[in-house]
Write a structure and sequence with these properties.
The chain is α+β, with helices and mostly antiparallel strands and about 190 residues long. It has a single domain, classed as Porin. The chain is about 15% helix and about 55% strand.
Length: about 190
């Protein structure tokens, strides 16, 4: 029984080893423009209310594959928010470097790292409460998949998870990448 299982596993590995390159999704010299929900934090600012408004993570990204395995993905996001008690803005700018580990017909499995910069400014309507502004950074290590639906060879969906260290002023955070739920994106390759 063990010999049969070993033979079956060996045969499957051999098939993938021989045919993997022919089936793989090659994105060399292609750029994919789209959306990610990227850097996320528990809360940023002088009060949790500010963080509820300003800890968003939506970014526009451009993923470019330098060769079959190595890519670069700069991202940028910003927003302005206002409540009855405060208003403010936040922005993030960064880049990730994915490296393909496994290529399949409609999916690439990758790992990588990244660095992001976060800046924000919060002002409160109550003059007795001091506003808050700062600049910080995030370091990321991740794994992810980018997959393509059959019949839509240029439309990619991706999901990533990993670890992130965030430091903004007096606030620092270390935990799962993307604030605990992961990062999801969609892009169109040209």
């Amino acid at each position: 029984m063990t010999k049969r299982i070993f033979s079956l596993i060996f045969a499957i590995c051999l098939i993938f080893a021989v045919s993997g390159t022919a089936l793989a999704k090659d994105l060399t010299n292609r750029i994919g423009l789209g959306y990610n929900n990227q850097i996320n934090a528990g809360w940023i600012g002088g009060a949790p209310a500010a963080g509820d408004v300003l800890a968003g993570s939506h970014t526009i990204s451009a993923k470019y594959w330098i060769d079959r395995n190595l890519g670069v993905e700069p991202f940028f996001g910003f927003f302005r928010a206002e409540t009855d008690d405060m208003d403010g803005w936040a922005t993030q700018l960064g880049a990730k470097v994915p490296y393909n580990l496994i290529e399949e017909a409609n999916m690439n499995f990758y790992a990588g790292g990244g660095l992001g910069i976060i800046a924000y400014d919060v002002d409160y309507d109550d003059d007795r409460v001091e506003g808050d502004d700062d600049v910080g950074f995030a370091l990321m290590a991740f794994t992810g998949v980018e997959f393509f639906l059959p019949g839509l060879p240029n439309l990619a969906f991706d999901a990533e998870f990993g670890l992130q260290y965030l430091n903004v002023g007096d606030y620092s955070e270390f935990g799962t990448y993307g604030g605990g739920f992961g990062v999801f994106g969609i892009r169109y390759y040209f």
